[in-house]
Structures are given as structure tokens and as C-alpha cells.
Amino acid sequence: MDINQILDQAETSHRSGNLPEAAGLYRKVLAQNPDHGDALYGLGTILLQQKEYPTAQEYLQKAVNILPDVPEFLFNLALIQEITGDIKDAQANYCHAALNAGDRGPFLLQICKKMIGLDLARQALPYLNAIHPQTPEVVWWKSRAQGAIGYWGSALKNLSWLTKKFPKDTTLWREHSVAAGHMRDFDLAITSFYTYMANKTVDGHDFLALADLYLMARKPDDAQEAIQKAFDLGLKNKADAFFIAGKCARLRGDYKAVRKNLDKAVILRPTFGKAWQMLFEIMDKDEIAPQADRCSSLAKDQNCTDRDRISLALATGQAYEKIDQFGKAFMAFEQANDSHKNLLENQGHIYDPHEAEEEAKKLLTIILRGLNIKRPPKNSRNNQFSFWACPALEPLWSKEY
Fold this sequence. Notes:
The chain is mainly alpha-helical and 401 residues long. The chain is built from 21 helices and no strands. α7 packs parallel to α9 and α15 packs antiparallel against α16. The chain is globular. The N and C termini lie far apart (60 Å). The C terminus is likely disordered.
């Protein structure tokens, strides 16, 4: 057999699941032509399926070097890079694969799913918009991408279309509730969440999320009722439940109950950074120093999550600031910033000052246009703009619970 016949037979064996035979045939091709891109890709894919990642990556990288614009080659190489933690290269190769996938909708959708999973929702959205037909699966992933980049109005519109098509789908109703919440339409968010609950067997976590949603809607009585149901359904040892109960008590102005619930939250989960932040808001000054020292130690605990480590450092800084220990406060805030920076870098986000400045300018232009305020002339003093502080919104409830 010539090399093309061997390759055809290898691909037939590969598709039928006979991996050992296919691997042997791919190796025969490579023995004759070590730079045969299709054979390198085929053998690399088999090794990927067999979880022999380092060797698989060698073959696939070589295939991409030879044929750099084949989307399948790029996709499988990105898969290995994602698995082995080489996130930046995986992101780049998924984007390159999408660029070269053309109008192959199903394959492009698979690439976009991976892109969204690696925080590339903004880059994935134009490709999702270009897929035809716009099947429910495509619309679902569009809504995921839109939510990830804050286009909640568009996400809500797509989710509304999907819930009409699949009125019993609990995932759709929950996401519809989340999108409505982000749009500050809490009546719709609560209605959607009740529809979600009506189509499943509810548990304590559902009532906990409902309580958090009621808090966002500034309905503390309804929130308290939902929290009690969460406790009744088995969440009496859940730190998050006591944290939400503490938030509810704060909204009612019952600071004794706030302290009681938050104390329970940090007993159940000592590294619960957000609970410590709220505790320091109401703690007596003579208590703060030893508890701030404790928080500083907890941030070094190996069982502490990345996000709790950031919250603990922020809580520590705020605590030291309240008792005028500014040196320690500065060190804690610096630790929080470093931890946050490391978390973002591990997720593939690199801070670019120039990009951030350009984004701020774009936002300012939109704000000034909406307020009908003209920019100052370029030669005005210091060439600076005035900024107005806006009250921060509390984070909306999510699927944490």
C-alpha cells in the first residue's frame, strides 16, 4: 500500500474505535514521512484519548507547526493545553481554531463552549452570532456568553425565548431568574425562581438562594421566611445560611442577630472572608486587634480558597484601618491585591494599563453623552475629567448555594 492507502486505513480503524491498529498505521505513515501533518494529528489524537498527554502534545504541536490553520489540529492541541494547565496557549489556540472553522456550525459551537469556559466569552460571542441555524443550543450558549460579559438584557431576551420553548427546563428558569436579577427586575427574578422551584424537588439550597434574592429585592421578611425553610431542610450547619441570615438581620436593623449569625458562620467556616468583613463592621474596637491578627493567619491556611484569601486580606486591612494601625492595614490591602492579581493571571487575565485606560475613556464618553455633558477642551488645565462617585451595588445572588 502507498502512504495514502495506509492513512485511509488508519483513519477507518480510528473511527471504528480500534485505537491500537490505527496507531500502528499512523506510525507506518510517519516512518515514511515524519512530517506528515494528518498522521501526526491522528496519532496525537489517539494519545490524547489514551491520556498520554505529554507525548500527545508533542505530535499535535508538530502537526500544527506544519499545518498551522487546520482548526481540528488547533482544537485538540488546545484541549491538551487546557488539561495540563497551559491556559494562555489553550486560549490562543481555541481562538485560532474558531477563526479557521468557517461555517461549520456544530464544530464552531464546540470551540465556543471551550472559549466561554476559559473566560473568552467576549471573543466567542461574534462566532456564536454567526452560526446558522440559531438552534436552541446555540441560543443557550449565546446567553451564557452574554451573561459572562455583562450583556444581561440580551441574555434575558434569549433566555425568555428558550423558556417559552422549554417551559419545564429548570436550568433555563434559574438562569432566567439570574439574568432578571442582574437587570434589577426583582419581581420577574422572583417569579422565574418560583417557576424553577415548581419544576423540581426543592431543597435547602434552593430556599437559601431565594432568600438571597429577596434580600436583593429589599424584602427582609420574605428573606427570613426562606432562610427558616432552608434551615428546616437541613442547612443548620451551613455557614452560607448563617451569612445570609446575618445579611437579612442587618437589613432589618437587628445588629444583635447580625452578630449571632455571623459568629456561627465563622465557627462553621473559619476562613469565610465575607463573613469576617461584615463582622468587623459591627465589632467593638477592643475586639478588633486580636481578631484582625487571627484573620491574617487564616489567610495563610492551605485550605483557604483563593477568593476567601482575598476577602480575608481585605477584611484584615479594613479592621486594622478602623483601629488606626495603618501600616498593617496597608500590608493587608497589598496582600489582597497581590492575591487577586495572581487569581486573575491563573485564569488567563493579565492587567493591561493601556487597555484599562482606553476602556475607562469609552465608558466615560458614554456616561457624558447620556448626561449631555461636554468633554473639557484638550488644552484645559491638566487635561483631566471630573468623576462622580456612584453608590456601589451589592453583589447579586448567584448559583453558589
